[in-house]
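Title: Comparing notes on inverse folding

I've been comparing how different people in this forum approach sequence design from structure. To keep things fair, I'm posting one structure and asking everyone to reply with a full sequence. Here's the target:
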């Protein structure tokens, strides 16, 4: 079976008259996608770009971003999406590292790009190069790329360290996305509400590639809006993918609009990734809509490795078993496979694997164990049914305090049960007595947060339900937790802030 570029191109040319994309800018059919991507690739070739060159895209969600993606694939150019929430220092890091031949941006982000660049790079507004418009232009025949040719350079989210460029070949993308979406029963009769950003493997990988591979249509939203998601499903959309912060906002919207909750019952599938859903959020969504959210796990370096199964009743906090083509194991600090139900680091191999960290051979080599096992850095446990549960990140969610190894996630689950806690993150900060002191940073429901008794109540709650060494040594109240664009809490930002405090 063809697993790479040829299969992807065949998929998007199979249904030329079918609607591919609905957006605020109108509709785009599969044949129009092919024509516009070909024209854009022809323009790139005229500008001297060749297979293996990089083109960075720093623009808000728009059909032209997807046209550019397939134009890059057609020519063999590596597509480098950049998080649109980044500011000039973060963008400068990526542009300096990737060294793209061209930067595509939009009017809203051009100033950030120009401020970020220390080298002279060609910059174009994404809507202005003629091939991205509707007019005629040169075309480029689709090159015959090998399956191992690089397709994407995705920069890691930087939740624990400076972001690195992950090289993903066509083979990994097409094979793994196909395996996951087959598992979810995607078909040409499905219609996806896509409100995820197009600079990350969640929205770009599953959303765009998965839809193309199955001949699906997409309702492309410029950003997440609960009311628009409800409207799209009421009008016939069948699938929605989100992250926990989106589902939290969606549940809040449904609480105030019971007919909207009823409208969501018409959908076929809701999925979540990028971070674990809290049990309360999982249960609340099921109560309102009748749907159990399908959770899955993955990362930029490995794409989509674990998923719940449709035919089984899902359980909150559980991310399922390996996707077909993927192997997973749990190891201790010495790299030995642990006994069933024990906690350890997740290692995976098989479909979806990156080729390398761009320009970082030593870091690439260090990220793999013998036998091709990728060290995810995530701490997990496996239950008696074989399903995996994410405990946390090895570097920030396992706190070593007073000689004990403590799961930050366990403490967070307890503190979230307080009726005045909207959100919470638990971290360990350096401490001369404890090694690491447990600190909880909580977002309270309502105002004010000054002179509040909530910190004492949270310490008491933890002490009542957990071993004494697990209770927070300090509780800090804040109005919001730092998150990246996909809703992951940036614990390294919290740790740096708390460490800097007297």
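Reply #1:
Here's my take.
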């Amino acid at each position: 079976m063809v697993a790479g570029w040829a299969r992807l191109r065949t998929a998007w040319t199979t249904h030329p008259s079918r609607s591919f994309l609905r957006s605020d800018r109108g509709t785009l059919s599969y044949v129009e996608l092919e024509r516009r991507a070909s024209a854009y690739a022809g323009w790139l070739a005229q500008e001297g770009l060749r297979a293996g060159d990089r083109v960075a895209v720093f623009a808000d969600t728009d059909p032209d971003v997807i046209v550019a993606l397939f134009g890059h694939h057609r020519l063999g150019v590596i597509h480098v999406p950049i998080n649109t929430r980044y500011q000039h220092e973060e963008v400068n890091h990526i542009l300096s590292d990737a060294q793209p031949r061209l930067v595509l941006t939009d009017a809203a982000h051009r100033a950030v790009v120009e401020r970020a660049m220390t080298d002279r790079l060609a910059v174009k507004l994404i809507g202005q190069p003629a091939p991205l418009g509707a007019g005629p232009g040169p075309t480029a025949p689709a090159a015959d790329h090998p399956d191992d040719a690089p397709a994407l350079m995705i920069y890691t989210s930087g939740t624990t360290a400076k972001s690195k460029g992950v090289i993903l070949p066509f083979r990994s993308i097409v094979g793994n996305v196909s395996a996951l979406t087959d598992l979810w029963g995607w078909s040409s009769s499905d219609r996806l509400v896509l409100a995820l950003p197009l600079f990350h493997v969640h929205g770009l990988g599953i959303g765009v590639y998965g839809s193309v591979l199955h001949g699906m249509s997409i309702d492309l939203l410029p950003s997440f809006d609960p009311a628009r998601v409800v409207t799209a499903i009421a009008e016939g959309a069948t699938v929605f993918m989100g992250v926990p912060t989106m589902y939290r906002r969606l549940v809040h919207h449904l609480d105030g609009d019971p007919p909207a909750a009823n409208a969501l019952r018409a959908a076929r599938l809701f999925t979540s990734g990028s971070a674990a859903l809290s049990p309360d959020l999982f249960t609340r969504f099921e109560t309102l809509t009748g749907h159990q959210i399908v959770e899955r796990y993955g990362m930029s370096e490995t794409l989509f490795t674990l998923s719940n199964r449709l035919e089984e009743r899902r359980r909150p906090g559980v991310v399922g078993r390996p996707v077909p083509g993927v192997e997973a194991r749990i190891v201790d600090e010495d790299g030995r496979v642990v006994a069933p139900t024990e906690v350890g680091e997740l290692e995976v191999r098989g479909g979806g694997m990156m080729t390398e960290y761009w320009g970082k051979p030593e870091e690439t080599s260090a990220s793999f164990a013998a036998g091709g096992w990728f060290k995810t850095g995530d701490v997990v446990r496996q239950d008696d049914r074989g399903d995996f549960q994410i405990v946390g990140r090895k570097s920030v969610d396992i706190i070593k305090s007073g000689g004990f190894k403590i799961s930050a996630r366990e403490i967070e689950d307890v503190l979230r049960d307080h009726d005045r806690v909207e959100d919470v993150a638990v971290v360990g900060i350096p401490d001369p007595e404890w090694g690491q002191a447990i600190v909880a940073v909580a977002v309270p429901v309502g105002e004010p947060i000054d002179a509040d008794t909530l910190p004492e109540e949270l310490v008491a709650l933890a002490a009542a339900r957990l071993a004494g060494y697990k209770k927070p040594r300090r509780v800090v109240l804040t109005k919001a937790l730092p998150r990246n664009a996909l809703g992951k809490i940036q614990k390294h930002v919290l740790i740096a802030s708390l460490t800097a405090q007297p």
